[in-house]
Write a structure and sequence with these properties.
Number of strands: 0
Number of helices: 5
Order of helices and strands: HHHHH
Oligomer: single chain
Distance between the termini: 41 Å
Radius of gyration: 21 Å
Helix content: 55-70%
Shape: elongated
Structural class: mainly alpha
Length: 85
């Protein structure tokens, strides 16, 4: 745990109104939102979540067309230079 995380016991996370409504519906019997979120995460093992993420990543890589590094560098340097002016 980072030092900042140890100092601040709670975090604010932005969610869409629809997500908030769904989360509220799952909060029963005096459970805290922290408990609800942890229960949901316990139901989805990290292996399953990461597997879905990696499958999508590899699917996108199938059609990936790289760019020439020289072109990318030139574009980046040009963009940085215009911000300084």
């Amino acid at each position: 745990m980072s030092e900042a995380a140890a100092r601040a016991p709670y975090r604010t996370i932005p969610v869409r109104p629809e997500t908030w409504e769904r989360l509220q519906a799952l909060r029963m019997g005096g459970a805290t939102y922290d408990q609800v979120i942890n229960d949901l995460m316990d139901m989805a093992p990290i292996e399953k979540v990461s597997d879905a993420f990696l499958r999508e990543h590899f699917r996108r890589l199938q059609n990936f067309q790289g760019v020439d590094w020289a072109d990318l560098r030139e574009k980046y340097v040009r963009k940085r230079g215009s911000r300084r002016a």
